Every structure is written in C-alpha cells, then in structure tokens.
Amino acid sequence: MKRLPAAHLAAFAVTLAGPASAADLAVKAPVPVAVPFNWTGCYIGVHVGAGFAKKDITDPVQLVQDSFLGAGSTVGVTTVSPSPSGAVIGGQGGCDYQFAASSIVIGIQGDVAGLTLRDNKTVGLPLGNPGDTAIVDAKTEFLTSVTGRIGYAFDNVLLYGKAGVAMAGDKYEVSGTFTGLPFDFRGLEDRWGWTAGAGVDWAFTRHWSANLEYDYYGFGNRTSTFADQANVFQGLVNVRQSIQVVKVGVNFHMWAAQ
Fold this sequence. Notes:
The chain is mainly β and 258 residues long. The protein contains two helices and nine strands, in the order αβαββββββββ. An eight-stranded antiparallel barrel has the order 1-3-4-5-6-7-8-9.
C-alpha cells in the first residue's frame, strides 16, 4: 500500500477546514443598532414646585369706609399689593406625537395643582378712629390648565414650549375694625386666564422621564364681589393678578413607540 505524501495530507486538511470556518462565520450574531428614542405616546405624572403671585387689589379702603358711612364717603383710590408665595403640588397628563424621521414633537397636556400661595398687607382707614386698619389677605388655592406643546427632541431629551388656557381658584378677606365695629369682607372666585411656559424633559428609561418647567399665568383685571355676612355689607373690588410657577416632575409614558 502506497503512503500519501505529506504535502497531499496537508492540502486535504486545509480543504476540510475551509467549509467549517465558513459555517462558523455564518452563524455569528449581527451587531445591534441603537434605536433612537421616540416621544410618540401618552403619559401621566406628578409635580412639585413653588409659586409666586402678584395681586393688585383696588380699593379695600373704599369698600370698608363706604359700607359704614355711605357711598362717596371715601376720596381717592387705594391699591394694596400682596405678593403671595408658597408650595405647588399636582399632576399632569397628555399625549405627544413625534413626526417620522424628524425631531419635531407636538402634543397636548392638562395640569391641575393645589397651592398654598398666601400673603397679606395692612392698610389704614383714615375716616375711622386713629389706628383703625384693615388686613387684606389674598390666597390662591388651585391652578388648572390645558396647553398645547411643541418641542425639539435630542434623542431622549426634549426641549419644549407650551401655551394655553388656565384657571385659578382665589380667596380674599378684608378684616379689622372701623370706629370700634368689627368687619370681615370675604371674596371667592374662579378666574380664567392664559398661560405660557417652557421646559426640558429627560427620558431616563423607555417609560419614565423627569422634567423641569417654568410657567407664567396671566389673569388680568377683574371686579369681584366682597361680602360681610355679619354686617350685611357687600361691595365691588378690582383685582389684577399674575402667577409664576417653577416645578419639577416625573412622567410615566404609556404605549411609547419602540
């Protein structure tokens, strides 16, 4: 029996190894491709923050003095300007749509929050006894809004602006003594206005994001009725107000595009 030359054996081994190596290459997994974050979907969340209001109240002095002494008794106009501040805590929900092959995002959002904004100012009553004053107390207890949003996405970071309609729930009180007699005028109103703001939203997982936002609320001038139930007095007072809010929040995103 003839022996095969060593060169022939080596060539045969290489021939067998070739298909095996090709098979190994064929089953290697493809390199994964990162999928950009997509903001299309709906969400709900909560927020906390701080609010700062400016209220110009005209004219609590006339309200008190003319109620006791008769219309036209007060000469001149007095405006009192408390600056309520406090905590904001609430929730939000909405839906966004990110255009295909684009970074533009549009959406709609609803917010509701409870507030502890409160401040008071003391004003003199010149037609009363020396030292007679009125304490003018102003509170804002809730804010709600419906806004449209438009933003630009940098993958999982969204910069956005928003604007829409808003409503504030306010309480007012003018109390003290006049010529030795106590008074306590109270006003309550839900006031419609507008809001505009801007913020940044960061999606730190597929379904969770955190955001920082600033909002301005304009409620303009409005005449409200203040009533003193004990003395059976009532009168009209003009209130001009605006509110600013800075808040942070978290959102849970549902049905987010994959």
